[in-house]
Amino acid sequence: MRILLVEDEQDLVAQLVRNLSAVGFVxxxxxxxxxxxxxxxxxxxxxIILDRRLPDGDGLEAIPRLRAxxxxxxxxxxxxxxxxxxxxxxxxxxxxxxxxxxxxxDELLARIRAALRRPGGGPQPPLRCGALTFDLMERCLRAxxxxxxxxxRELALMEALLQRQGRVVVRDTLMxxxxxxDDEVTPNAFDVLVYRLRRRMAELGAGVDILTMRGxxxxxxxxxxxxxxxx
Length: 231
Hints:
Largest sheet: 5 strands, parallel
Number of strands: 13
CATH class of the largest domain: Alpha Beta
Shape: elongated
Low-confidence stretches: none
Order of helices and strands: EHEHEEEHEHEHEEEEHHHEE
Radius of gyration: 19 Å
Number of domains: 2
CATH topology of the largest domain: Rossmann fold
Distance between the termini: 18 Å
CATH architecture of the largest domain: 3-Layer(aba) Sandwich
Number of helices: 8
């Protein structure tokens, strides 16, 4: 899942990117409203974290344009403006949630999980394929019921494949799910990532095949499962 982080305080940006990436999110960063709107136009995000005091204005001013670019995306305002009036204004201007700095990272992660559960309100069922289960909210992959530790990009690739299991996923779709706009990607980095994940699943006896369909994309399926339609 991709998160758009709109924040100009560099130390906080580094902390948030580090912690969000550690639990499997791909983070695109924008330091200004104009950058945030360009990023929203250019991609799809599961959540937007939005500061208010930005170099080119109040982040709340951008909410209508961010919503127009990505209808339905949850927006969590993260700001030092902590008065009741400021919170009310933020929520009335379209924010889905409002968290005041300083904050506990565990609380931020819990609020992100809550935002991603909407509008259904209940937890999403885990993705299952072969002996694998993937909890979307906890960002936890298990094989035969035991937790599996993967590098963050391996985890992001696994999530993108499991969400479309049994279907061919084009390379660009997968790369968009794995790499942020700021990542420098070498030409063969994606192929190496696929190879590592395939080898790891074989070591675990996960009961899945990760197939490269030349000229089309990548697919994960339970062993012996037939191919479905392309994505």
